[in-house]
Amino acid sequence: MALFPFRKSPAPTTGSADLEGFLTGYSIEVMPRTAEKVEDFRAILPKGTRVYIAHIEGTPVEEMVATAKRIGAEGFDVMPHFPARIIKDKTTLQDWILRYKDVGVEQALLLAGGVALPHGDFATSMQLLETGAFDGFKRLHVAGHPEGNRDIDPDGSDRMVMEAARWKSAFAERTDAKMAMATQFCFDAAPVIAWTDRLRAEGVHLPVHIGIAGPAKLQTLIKFAIACGVGPSLKVLQKRALDVTKLLLPYEPGEVLAALAAHKAAHPGFGIEQVHFFPLGGIKTNAEWVTANGGLAGKPARAA
Which fold has domain 17-303? Predict the structure, then answer.
């Protein structure tokens, strides 16, 4: 993910405290190679921000652990990915966990991973949870799919996805770790609201940390959205691409966030607990956008 020059956003159009409250406690995702481009996370992120470290196939675990150690030492909560399908066996899993624990990691995101065929014994995050290897972790997150996932439900339904969500919710009742569901990014509030409400109706009580794509070039977002299997809300980007007055302007997530924030303010029991950013246009760009649009919710630790 290349870092794009930051363009200061105008004052948020919502003009309310709803957005600031909604952004409070937000998390952000990095990879070892993108983290290297940030000199000091304290200069751009609020104190205590949860930083996910994405484990892309082919990344040596040593690089993952070194990134976790560095970001943790700067005062942030670190949550590395554990993609089931690239973990060969339980011995490998236990080795990774030991390495992370040695540098103070106490949180993990468990997911199937983006490869089609498992490299070893694991194919799902549920299999990882069943090993018991994560006993002692304070927080465990699992993946959520507001617009479905055709890798899991090829027929376009969400039958298997919802069944897995119910299993994970039941597991949360059996573990001492705090659990939540971190989702794929979306560009439209309406399907997110409907899906979050449906989770509750289906007996899934995991808090939702909604995935949001940070500011980025429109072409970049469309490329990532197609690659990641983003569903109907992709039409929001495609419609924008047809408007020549907007085609060359960076996409910013203010509209979808304002809608979700307003819904949360009107319905305090709404299941979204936090916002999780995918900084597809750059970590610094994303963090500065939150600072500009979220007020104290984005105040960097170094400025505190």
Answer: TIM Barrel (3.20.20)
